[in-house]
Design goal:
By secondary structure, the chain is mainly alpha-helical. Helix content is 90%, strand content 0%. α1 packs antiparallel against α2. The longest helix has 25 residues. 3% of the residues are buried.
């Protein structure tokens, strides 16, 4: 997955270098490179975030049950 992201950013960088102005190049890199990659990683990272959230919640419930048992 990271190889695809690196390749995409490389192509976006090359496309942004060919722009006529610096502003055009920066905007090209942001809108054709960084923004799509950020969206890609956010969408494909959702299952991992949900799994971690469930793990934190289950640990939190277990911690509360242990502290109630100690008292």
């Amino acid at each position: 997955m990271y190889l695809i992201a690196i390749a995409w950013l490389y192509v976006a960088l090359l496309a942004s270098i060919t722009e006529n102005t610096v502003v055009g190049g920066v905007l090209t890199f942001i809108f054709f490179g960084l923004a799509p990659m950020a969206l890609f990683f956010w969408l494909f990272g959702t299952p991992t975030r949900r799994r971690r959230q469930r793990e934190r919640e289950s640990r939190g419930l277990n911690d509360r049950a242990e502290s109630d048992a100690d008292q």
